[in-house]
């Protein structure tokens, strides 16, 4: 199976070479690598051209700056393969990432989006903690999550997606700033497509001050909440609220709801600050900031700590293997 690996980049000179090298080092060799430069002003274009000159599988596309999701849509349009693997420019594929996911897709041709687990790394590449291990890991779990009106999240750099399915669904909607992927996965699930995750950690996801998960947390959270409200509206048969309508709803809440929302948002903000301090190896400030997050809104922060730190280890030890996981385990054991 040939795969289009796509990396959208804006001013990514610091980590781009490492991301590209992780693709070129894949055990699955049948791929093209498309690098989309979203109007970078640093050395990103020169790094891209250097790799394209050395390897015929690498292709560079340049455009004026259209933003995160605009570059992602350009990646989909430029890809020539049936399956597209997304990689952010500051993340890293583990060596067998494509191989194991291709095997899983061949074992279950009904899958249209396939994600996996990941591990947080710091700016220097040091491993921190596993990322959250929420499902769906089976079709039954996917159906139940949608039935319970739960929002589906995938680590973007772990995803292999069926190109035609995604394009037929309209691709990424660029109005959902930094939440365009959450919007896409849930729209696909609501259209009865099969989206699953593998339990293996296949990607190193870099957490740093300028990463999409670390920068502008308040703005990202606002757009994320709007995307989730649109998901719930669709599943209830209602019209999606516009962003202005969502802001008006926030302003119309009672004083108690506003206070609770402020506590939750502040708790999340301090939680994210603590994570950034931890990633920067400032352990004392991380502990102090996390203590502030717990004091502000323990009911929000404690479950986050559990899902981020404890649940991945517990799930890895206690849960039975899924058929997909067992298949990949057999492949691992059979490899010389």
Would you write up a description of this structure?
This protein is α/β, with parallel strands linked by helices and 336 residues long. It folds into two domains: 3-212, Spore Coat Polysaccharide Biosynthesis Protein SpsA, Chain A (Alpha-Beta Complex), CATH 3.90.550; 217-318, no CATH class. It is 50% helix and 17% strand. It has 13 helices and nine strands. The protein has helices at 16-24, 44-54, 68-78, 97-107, 139-147, 163-168, 180-190, 217-235, 243-252, 255-279, 283-296, 298-318, 323-334, and strands at residues 3-9, 31-38, 58-63, 83-86, 92-93, 111-121, 127-130, 160-162, 194-206. Strands 1, 2, 3, 4, 5, 6, 7, 8 and 9 form a nine-stranded mixed β-sheet that branches. α10 runs antiparallel to α11. It is globular, with a radius of gyration of 20 Å. The relative contact order is 0.12. Residues 318-336 have low confidence and may be disordered.
């Amino acid at each position: 199976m040939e795969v289009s690996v796509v990396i959208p980049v804006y001013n990514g000179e610091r980590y781009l070479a490492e991301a590209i090298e992780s693709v070129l080092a894949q055990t699955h060799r049948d791929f093209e690598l498309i690098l989309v430069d979203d109007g970078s002003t640093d050395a990103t274009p020169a790094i891209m051209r250097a790799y394209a000159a050395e390897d015929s599988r690498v292709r560079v596309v340049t455009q004026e700056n259209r933003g995160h999701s605009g570059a992602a849509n350009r990646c989909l349009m430029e890809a020539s393969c049936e399956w597209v693997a997304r990689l952010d420019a500051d993340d890293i594929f583990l060596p067998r990432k494509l191989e194991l996911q291709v095997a899983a897709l061949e074992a279950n041709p009904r899958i249209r989006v396939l994600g996996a687990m990941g591990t947080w790394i710091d700016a220097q590449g040091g491993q921190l903690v596993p990322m959250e291990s929420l499902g769906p890991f089976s079709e039954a779990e996917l159906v139940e999550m949608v039935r319970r009106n739960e929002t589906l999240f995938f680590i973007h750099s772990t995803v292999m997606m069926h190109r035609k399915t995604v394009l037929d669904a309209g691709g990424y909607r660029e109005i959902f700033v930094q939440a365009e992927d959450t919007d896409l996965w849930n729209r696909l699930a609501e259209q009865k497509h099969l989206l699953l995750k593998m339990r293996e950690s296949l990607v190193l996801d870099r957490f740093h001050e300028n990463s999409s998960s670390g920068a502008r947390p308040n703005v990202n959270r606002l757009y994320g909440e709007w995307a989730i409200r649109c998901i719930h509206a669709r599943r209830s048969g209602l019209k999606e609220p516009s962003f202005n309508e969502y802001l008006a709803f926030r302003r119309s809440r009672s004083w108690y709801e506003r206070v609770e929302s402020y506590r939750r948002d502040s708790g999340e903000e301090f939680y994210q600050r603590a994570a950034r301090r931890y990633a920067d190896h400032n352990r004392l400030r991380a502990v102090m900031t996390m203590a502030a997050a717990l004091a502000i809104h323990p009911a929000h922060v404690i479950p986050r700590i559990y899902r981020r730190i404890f649940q991945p280890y517990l799930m890895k030890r206690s849960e039975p293997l899924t058929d997909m996981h067992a298949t990949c385990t057999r492949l691992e054991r059979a490899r010389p």
